Amino acid sequence: MDLITWLIVGVLAFAVVVAGTMFLARRRALPPAPKTPALPTTEPEARAEPGPAAEGGQESATGTATLERPEAPSTRMARLRRRLAGSNNPLARGLLSILSSDRLDADVWDDFEATLITSDLGVGPTQELTEALRRELVVDGVGDPAHAKAVLRHELLNLVGPNTDRSLNLQGEDGKPAVVLVVGVNGTGKTTTIGKLSRVLVAEDKSVVLGAADTFRAAAAEQLQTWGDRVGVPTVRGPEGGDPAAVAYQAVQRGIDEGADVVIVDTAGRLHTKTGLMDELGKIKRVIEKLAPVTEVLLLLDATTGQNGLIQARVFAEVVQITGIVLSKLDGSAKGGIVVQVQRELGVPVKLIGLGEGVDDLVPFEAEAFVDALLSE
């Protein structure tokens, strides 16, 4: 090989060495490639773990959607007190009519009684109120409107029951959750009211489990779960047409396992004339009490149903021991007197009232607030 060939080979070799050195130096100067983040191995905390299997039921957990924060109880109550007042309320009109009369003769008192009776106050309470007012106003009449209104307020408040204990018993025994059983006929808004009640309890920082024991109505469990999902409350449900008592049992067991404060159990909107269904309601209560006492049995009544609602109340009271009444639809169109009459009929207090279709339109019943709203002009 001649000298020129050796020179060419030497130059090429030198060039290869230089290029390799520059490549290695450049590679060392580059930052390390980012690592691919590992996939999570657990579900988000917002997703509840499945509960223990139970006879006839399957548990449905809340989703990861943004949860709603219910309106504070104090704000909700102030707003709903205003909604209760108004000239559209027949009972309010009847009460205020006596204050606007020029003189209190027999015709005025007869009209007053008739108005109160048609406002579902009942014959007995109406006569008591009328006699008390006639006795108090016999001298002064309504010449002093402020005095007459004060007398009317005092007597009406006595009928409603200002000193009645209307608190919900939400204290379980032996570390177990309180159990609230909600009963009522079709169309009273029972499932919706349970959803609203769960919002009230969540706003008070209580942990809640819902039990969808209405397995006869296809949409009932879905409806209840939707309410629960909105505030982060788990709903225990079973197959359509399944054993309602088994679902109720599983819901209470879930509440015990998770240390919940309250378990609320929905029941079928059974017709009070169906003996078999009423017997089943008694069975649900007995099965629940194998795990924990039922601390509240709330009967939901539509405030617009009047005497029909009272018939329903009597039948339910024969099957389970009612501890409180929830009156739905007690807004400007309701007659209002049902509050007094149903308490007299059952001997148990009205504890909650619903005044509209809004998600936070459910508040504890307060006798003074109710009477004051009725007498607001």
Task: Explain how this protein is built.
With 377 residues, the protein is an alpha/beta fold. The chain has 2 domains: 77-160, Up-down Bundle (Four Helix Bundle (Hemerythrin (Met), subunit A)), CATH 1.20.120; 167-366, 3-Layer(aba) Sandwich (Rossmann fold). Helix content is 47%, strand content 11%. The protein has 13 helices and 9 strands.
User: What name does the CATH topology of the largest domain carry?
Assistant: Rossmann fold
CATH superfamily of the largest domain: P-loop containing nucleotide triphosphate hydrolases
Q: Write down the overall geometry.
A: elongated
Strand content: 5-15%
Largest sheet: 9 strands, mixed
Question: Can you count the beta strands?
Answer: 9
The ordered string of helix (H) and strand (E) elements is: HEHHHHHEHEHEHEHEHEHEEH
Structural class: alpha/beta
Separate helix tally? 13
Query: Structurally, how many domains make up the residues?
Result: 2
**Distance between the ends:** 122 Å
Strand order across the biggest sheet? 1-4-3-5-2-6-7-8-9
Kindly state the mean pLDDT as a whole number? 77
CATH architecture term of the largest domain? 3-Layer(aba) Sandwich
